[in-house]
Amino acid sequence: MDVLGAWRAFVNVSERGSFTEGAAATRVPQSVASRRIAALEKHLGEPLFDRSTRGAMLTQFGRDMLPSAKRLVRLAESMEEEAERAKLRPFRLAVPDICTVRDLARLDAEARRDGVHLDFHAAAPAGRAELVRSREVRAALTAVPPSDATWSVPLGLAGAADPLAETVYVETLRAGRAAQASRRSRIWIQPEDEVPHIRDRLFRVRDAAGLQPAQVAVAATLTAATAEVLGSADLLLCSAKQAEELGLHWRPVGEIDLVRGFGVSAAAGDDAVRVRTRLWRPVARCLGARDQDDLGVRERDEGAS
After folding, report:
1. Which of 193, 252, 265, 288 has the highest CB neighbour number within 10 Å of its CB?
2. Could you say which protein family the record assigns here (predicted)?
């Protein structure tokens, strides 16, 4: 028995004094309203309406039950309204601060079609992890090693001039003995890639290739790094998508495969699963991630949940 539906029909019929009008107010056929009330009476063991009179006249038992029934119906309606508000309440998501306004807007638009209203908080990798720990956001796209990644973004080196070669080797930046330090090209690491599984591996390649320590540097901001590259022969460690947006020429790194790995961290496990599964494709486009079998990702996450 639909207990709530039965009490709602009871309240509407009693207030209108008519089974026909009460059923209409309940938005069900009269026959359905009558069956629900009859089932309720059977469940309670007492009649709610006097069937021997015309119209819908309450019995004494019905009059005694009416105040509580009204409270129940009002509470149910209030809960339904709160549920609708909760669905529209923004889902605060920490995202990389390299995401463009256009990409975030597209992500938000696609999420809304799936019933999720996003509220973005852009931050660097360490900041995103802290936002989750402090519960200032419901979830965050966090930097993780490629082996643990839900989304993977290959990195390469990009410069203002077209290098012509299909691959850029770090060792080609090694200066000759007569070269001045001021003329040595540098590789700039942006804040998003200042994580051990990217930064430290590139430092090891730098040392193995015989470059000076200063030739691989971490920039304070992506803007500062891009400015250095645009005005010199320096190179920026970035994704192909970023290079295109910045008007730079991108090539993979010859000595090493560097990949940005992104996962989802959330205080509540179902929030993490929601982002990984329902928003996998729009997040992938926003990050510039390479194509993956998202079905496999979804099945893995759903099995873990």
Report:
1. 193
2. Belongs to the LysR transcriptional regulatory family.
| Residue 86: its H or E element | helix 60-88
Q: Among 36, 65, 87, which residue terminates a domain? A: 87
CA pair distance 138, 262, nearest whole angstrom: 16
Q: Is 236 exposed, middle or buried (0-12, 13-18, 19+ CB in 10 A)?
A: buried
Residues 6+ apart with CB under 8 A from 76: 4, 8
Q: How far is CA 160 from CA 13, 14, 192, 301, in A?
A: 77, 78, 21, 41
Q: Domain span at residue 10?
A: 3-87
Domain boundary among 87, 112, 135: 87
Q: Does 204 lie in the same domain as 288?
A: yes
Per the structure, the count of domains in the chain is 2
Burial class (CB in 10 A: 0-12, 13-18, 19+), 106: middle
Q: pLDDT tens digit string along 170-205?
A: 999 987 544 444 468 999 999 999 999 999 999 999
Distances (CA, A) of 63 to 11, 138, 170, 182, 276: 10, 47, 86, 93, 53
Each residue of 37-61: b (16+ CB within 10 Å) or e?
A: beebbeeeeebbbeeeeeebebeee
CATH number at residue 164: 3.40.190.290
Q: What residues contact 286, with CB distance under 8 A and at least 6 apart?
A: 95, 99, 103, 104, 106, 107
- The number of residues in the chain equals 305
Please give the model's pTM, rounded to 2 decimal places: 0.67
Q: Count the Cβ atoms, other than its own, within 10 Å of residue 256.
A: 14
Instruction: Give 138-147 pLDDT, tens digit per residue.
Output: 999 999 999 9
Give me the pLDDT at residue 176, please: 58
16 with 163, same domain: the answer is no
Q: How far apart are CA 275 and CA 97, in angstroms?
A: 18
**In terms of domains, do 207 and 106 share one?**
yes
Distance, CA of 163 to CA of 74 (rounded, Å): 70
